[in-house]
Automatic annotation (TrEMBL):
The lineage of its organism: Eukaryota, Metazoa, Ecdysozoa, Arthropoda, Hexapoda. A zinc finger (UBR-type) spans 50-123. GO terms for cellular component: cytoplasm. Residues 1-21, 228-263, 295-318 are annotated as: Disordered. Residues 295-311 have a biased composition (Basic and acidic residues). The keyword Plastid does not apply. Keywords: Metal-binding, Zinc, Zinc-finger. PROSITE patterns: ZF_UBR. InterPro entries: UBR7, UBR7-like_UBR-box, Znf_FYVE_PHD, Znf_PHD, Znf_RING/FYVE/PHD, Znf_UBR. Coiled coil: none annotated. This is UBR-type domain-containing protein. Pfam families: zf-UBR (PF02207).
Length: 476
């Protein structure tokens, strides 16, 4: 949950130009449309916007919504509705978009809605006993229990979903440094990690935490982390500092130990000073790496060779080439339990981050399966439970349905000459400006944008367009 990753559609005319103009090309517009379309297809693609999903039972994963009009947030009970019901039964209501949830059956029209029947499927049971609800259904998220977006929070912060409790957390409230987006696949929040002690046997596969620096220019540092009461961890990939540390970071301790920051010719040399400090201690830290690698061998299955260490970059590769084959073990043989070949590792507080394919590494012997079941996390061994699997299905379904908006737009664009392209982009910029001004009024008045409001806006646009096309009476 975060800002849309739209491509930048503007560029500066010059660094010294105080009146910078936004330059938008038609390709920029179509590319932005494609990204928004892909994001929508990822979440809504596998869903059915015409039929209630109730009769399909408890779906492995689906897009859900909570209606605060029918079920206010101050109520003790919660309820969730499917995509189709959000359109057909609650179209003009105050809805909370819940993204996706697992093992859920649509509640629309049951006893939680006090007699209001579902228009798509009126015959339903009174309750769905296997549904589980969290605070998201009341429109609040994270350990701070605030809405998203939060009008009272001036700080912009992305949110990440825990794969166990499925709540969303601000990065700054995870009590942990967050790796780069392409270095991990799934996150388990701190409280959920604490509730699942068996995960400590697999921490050797988790993405190592990174150092949080205070470099506001988002430069990268590539150093080894030295714990006060333990050995150094192996060097990590360069990671830009995107969040402020909630605790005193090791990088800051190094800086304070080696003297204050100095100024040269009025230029701050904090980053350079930190770099020199790191380089001076690099030789000492690297000597400890060999010992760290040796210690790590005790924390991985014996199927690894003596020279291998399961790093993030090759976990999936090792599964694919058969080095790790937990799914193929004889679950009837207690001696084949992978946990017996692993060592329980101590862990730091906060969230843990896991690479793509880590679920395949979990032991599936009978004893471990019972352990997962007792903690209500049997889904951890199911690759199809992942959000990525769900999104891939949505994208595949959309591709099979025909060309995307981007492809259709590029085809239409190629048929236009230069003058027509300029007219089209000018029309888009005009529409964009008017729409921003129109929606700003809703933000100021804290009103929900309805379908009728959007239709009214475009009707006004059409009227203005006709006025421009009409020939003035005085024209000769």
């Amino acid at each position: 949950m975060g800002d849309s990753n739209l491509p930048s559609s503007s560029m500066s005319k010059g660094e010294n130009d105080d009146n910078e103009e936004s330059i938008v090309t038609m390709v920029d517009v179509l590319k932005a449309e494609e990204i928004m379309e892909e994001n929508a297809d990822a979440v809504l693609g596998p869903g059915d916007d015409k039929n209630c999903t109730y009769n399909e039972g408890y779906l492995k994963r689906q897009a859900l919504y909570s209606c605060l009009t029918c079920h206010p947030a101050d109520k003790s009970e919660s309820a969730g509705i499917c995509l189709a019901c959000s359109y057909h039964c609650h179209g003009d209501h105050d809805l909370v978009e819940l993204y996706t949830k697992r093992n859920f059956r649509c509640d629309c029209g049951n006893s939680l809605f006090m007699g209001k029947k579902c228009t798509l499927d009126p015959v339903k049971s009174e309750t769905n006993e296997s549904n589980s609800y969290n605070q998201n259904f009341r429109g609040v998220y994270c350990s701070c229990q605030r809405p998203y977006p939060d009008p009272e929070d001036p700080e912009e912060d992305e949110m990440i979903q825990c794969i166990v409790c499925e709540d969303w957390f601000h990065i700054r409230h995870l009590d942990s440094s967050v790796p780069k987006e392409d270095e991990y696949s799934e996150m388990i929040c701190g409280p959920c990690t604490d509730k699942l002690p068996f995960l400590q046997y697999y921490l050797g596969h988790a993405v190592s935490k990174i150092i949080k620096t205070e470099d506001k220019n988002e430069r990268s540092v590539n150093i080894s982390v030295v714990e006060e009461d333990g050995p150094a961890t192996s060097p990590q990939k360069q990671v830009p500092n995107k969040i402020s540390p909630t605790k005193e970071s090791p990088a800051k301790k190094i800086n304070e130990t080696n003297g204050p920051v100095v100024q040269e010719n009025g230029t701050c040399t904090e980053v350079e000073h930190l770099k020199e400090t790191i380089e001076s201690s690099e030789e000492t830290l690297m000597k400890k790496e060999k010992q760290v690698l040796e210690d790590a061998k005790d924390n991985v299955p014996e199927t690894f060779s003596s020279e291998e260490k399961p790093e993030l970059s090759n976990v999936t590769e090792e599964v694919d080439r058969g080095v790790l084959t937990p799914k193929e073990t004889d679950v009837n043989k207690e001696s084949e339990c992978l946990v017996k070949k692993l060592k329980m590792l101590p862990r730091e507080t906060g969230a843990t981050f896991w690479p793509e394919g880590f679920r395949k590494l979990l032991c599936t012997c009978n004893l471990c399966l019972e352990t997962y079941k007792s903690h209500n996390v049997s889904f951890l061994t199911d690759e199809e439970d992942t959000v990525r699997s769900y999104e891939d299905k949505g994208k595949l379904r959309k591709r099979e349905a025909g060309p995307t908006q981007y492809e259709r737009g590029m085809e239409a664009l190629s048929s236009l000459d230069r003058v027509q392209q300029m007219e089209a982009i000018l029309g888009y910029n005009e529409m964009k400006t008017h729409l921003s001004e129109y929606l700003a009024k809703f933000v100021e008045n804290k009103k929900v944008v309805r379908e009728e409001d959007i239709k009214e806006f475009f009707s006004g646009m059409q009227a203005r367009k006709r006025q421009k096309l009409d020939i003035p009476y005085t024209c000769r």
